[in-house]
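#struct-pred

JT: dropping the chains for the assembly here, can someone run the whole complex?
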Amino acid sequence: MSDQHKTSILILDDEPIVSKRLKPSLEKQGYEVETFTVSSEALKRTKERSFDIVITDLKMEGLNGMDFFTEVKATSPRTEVIVITGFATMETAKESFQKGVFDFLAKPFKISEITAVINKAELKIKQS
Amino acid sequence: MNMGLLALDENLASSIALRYASQLVNMLTLQLQAGHVEVPDKKQHSGGTGWVRRTWERGLQEAGQQAVQRLLNTEKVPCPFIGSPKVFIGDRDKEFLAELGSGRYDLFIEGNLNTSDINNFYELISSPLYTKTPCPIMVVKNLVSSDSVALLCGDGVDHQSVIPKALSLLKGDALHYDLIFYRYQETEATVSTNKDEAGTVLVEAEKLLQAANIKPANVQVVTGTPESVAAMLKKYCLVATSFPVRKTPRLELLAQCPSPILLCKNKARKSS
Amino acid sequence: MRILIAFDTHSYSSRIVSEVAKLAANTWADITMLAVQPAGSGNKTDATLAKALRQYRTDFIDQFDAGDQPYGGNISNEEFVQKNGAWELSKHSPALASRKELLLKIRVGDPAKEILAEAREHEADLIVLGCTKGLDSQWKGEVDLPQKIAKKAACSVVVIKEKKVPTTLTCCLDQTHVSQSSLEMINQIVTLYQAELKIVGLTDNKGTDGKAGVENSIAQILKYYAERQISAWIKLVRPEDLEEYVAEVSRENMVGLWMGKKSLLGKIFSPNLVGKLVNHSQSSVLILR
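RK: done, full complex below.
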C-alpha cells in the first residue's frame, strides 16, 4: 500500500491501552493511524484534516464520544465512524446508528474483530 | 467552620479517604489540614544530637512530604487544604494525638479498609488514638456518594451527646438524616419496626433533630445480625454513632459496615 | 464481542434467552446459539434440538422492538446446512440490515468438549449457559457440565441458575494480573444490570508484591472505575476466608471470579473453587478470564 492511498484512521479512547493495542496492529496492516486519549485534542485534529475512519469510545471525560463523532460527521460526512464502548446500553447502540455510525463494537473485542469492521468500512468508502 | 485533620499515607485507604474528604468539603462547612506521620524504621539512626539529629529529622520530613505529594499527584483530586501538609516524625498514634491535643481540630479523618477480619477493626477501636482522641473520628472505609446519613442509636450510645455533636460537624443543607436504633437478633433478614419499639430513645433523638430544624426522613428500629444490618447501612454516605467501648453487636456491626463511620464520644459518666 | 450460548431442550435453557437478549441489545454482540447432539445420530440434525434452536432464536428476536435489532428477520424458510461435521443456520448479511451475526449451530459429540471447541474455534468472548437450580447444577442430565465449562473455557463464562436481576456484582480479582478484557466484561455486566460493583481483594497474598503491591493494584482498579463514574466498593479478604466469603455472597448475588491463566486465585486455592461456586450459587456466576 503506497502512502498516497493509505486509509487514514483516528482512534480516540481515554484508555491508553486501547490505542497501544490497536495502533501497531493497524499500522502493520498498512493503515495510517493517529491516536488520542483526550476528545478535545482529537476534535481539534479532525478540524485540521479529515480521516477516512474514526474509531471512538463513548464514555469519556469532557466531550463524550457521541458528541465527538456527531461533530466529526458534521465536518466530514464521508468519514466512517466505528464506536467502541465498554459500557454499552441499548440506548447508546440505537443512538449511535441513528446518528450514522458505521458499526458499534462492545468491549472486549479482538483485534481481528475490529479489523474486519475496518475492512468493511474501507470497502464502503472505496465503493462510494 | 469546622476544622478536620485528614491523615494521609501512601496507601489505598488514604486514597479512598482523600477522595471522600474532597466530597465532604463540598457538602459541609469544613476545612481540612492534611497530616502525615513518618514512622522511623527501627534500624534507622535516631540517636545523636545537634546537626546529626536535625539532618536525620529533615530527611524524614522530606520523605514524608514526598509521600503525601505522591499521593496527591496520583489521585489528582481537588481537595483544598489549609496550608501545606503537616509531617510529624515518630509513633503514629502519639503524634496525631499530640496534634489533635492542640485544640485546633473538630474532627480527625482517616481511611481504613473494610476487611473480612473484624479483629482489625477491634484493634483500631482500642488503639491509643481512638481511646484518647479529644475529638470525633471519621473512619472512611469506602467512597460512598450518597447524601443520606444514618444516626445510629442503641446499645450503649448516648444519643443526647452524640446527635448534637454529629449535627455540629455535619452542618450544611446537603445531607438527609435517618434515625436508626439497632437491635441484635439472629434473623435471616433485617426487620424494620416502629420507633416506639426503642422506648424513648428515638423519640428523644427526633426531638434533638427537630431542635436543629431537621426532620429525619426515617425513624426506625432495625433488628438483625451485624452482617445483615451492615449490608443495609451501605446506602448511607456516613453512619454516625458513639465510640464502642466493649465487644458488642454494635461494634461488630460497625466492623462489618462498608460505609464511612463517624465516631463521637458519649458524655463522660461519673464513676459510682 | 462474540457470545456463545449453549442450549439444550430443558426449561433452564429457555429461561436464559431473555437474559442474553438484554446483553445483546446493549452490546450488539455476534451471537452463536449452540446445541450438541450425541454422536451416532445419523447424518441429520436432531429434529427436537433443531426445532428448539429455531424457537430460541424467535424468542431472542422477540425481545427486541421491531426494527431495533441487528440480527436480521425470520428464518422460517431456511434450513440447517452441514459444514465441517456440524450444522449451521445463519442469516447474516450486512446488506440485509443484519449487521451482526446470529448463528444457529448444532455440533455432534460430547457436550462439554463441543461447547469448549466451539468457543475456541470462533474466539468467543463469553459463554453463557443455564443449568438446574440447587447444589448439583445439572445440564442435560450431566451433573458437572457447567463446572467443566467454567473451569476449562479459555474465555469468560456466565452460568445462570435462576433468572434474577443481581443488585451487586461481587468480583474477586487477583489484583496483580487481572486482564483488561475482564475489567471490560465486568463493565458490561454492571451496566446491563445497573448493579453495584464490589471489588474483593486478597490480603497477604503470597506471590504478589506484598500488602503495598496489593493495595496499589486495587487503587489502580478503583481509579479506573472512579474515572468512569462507577462506584466500586472495596473489601479485603484473607486468603483463608475467601471460599467461605464467596459461598456466602453467592447465595444472594452474582459473583465474578477472575480465573485467567495468571490468576493466583486458581493457583493458591482449592482447584475446585470454581466448581464449588457454581454449585453453591443461587443465581448467576461469572468466571472472568
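JT: nice. The two ends of chain C are 14 Å apart (CA to CA). The first strand of chain C starts at residue 2 and ends at 6.
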